[in-house]
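call fold(seq) -> tokens
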Amino acid sequence: MKNLCHLATLLVCLQTVLLKVPALAMKVTQPIKIIAERNNVTLKCVYNITGDGKAQVFRVTVYKSNEEKNSEVCAASFNNSMKPFEKRDVLHCIGQPRRNSISIQFIGMNMSHSDWYFCKVEKMFPLPYTQATGNGTWIFIKPDVEALSVPSEKKRCPQVTEAALIILALASLFLLYSIVVTYLHWPVGATVCIFGMKEAVDMKCELIHNSYEPAIATWTGQRWETGPRQGVEKQTRGTKQ
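ret:
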């Protein structure tokens, strides 16, 4: 009977103590969405603890897609010193704790990282332990607008330089010279075709029939004329006399 009285007294004392202790609760809030145009995105998680003003050590964890162990992208512990931290886990993140909030900057994000991100804050010390998770933030990374807006440069035709023009002019002169030389020295059997420069339209061709008098072409200054060689001509005159 005496033991029952002691147990009842203990229960009453415990109930009195529990009624005097305020309820401990935590709430985490975060933005609904973040639309970023750059690779660096900052997520701010705000936490409030009611019933305990002695919290000293915290832990923050950011999950991608859902709150599961294998979906953590950034996790770190911090205290009231408010010193920043840097982690290189799944994503490169830099955290800056502040009173009742923490800002986490993700470095090097791209379009493939667009997803829901959940922020979880835990009170580690002193006890009792408590934790809360936000409703999630939709982070959307826009494509690189500048890269898409710059049209691809069209291939430009190579510019003709002065050296190229000189080479082209010399090549044209050599080609013209070879055509003229070929034209003047082209043999056609016993037929010698003589083309006057001023008589290009009325091309005349003289046929030399006398096999004993080889043909010879002479330029008079205005046109070409044909006739026997001088030695043969003198010999023929001497025979006639």
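DSSP finds four helices and 15 strands in the chain.
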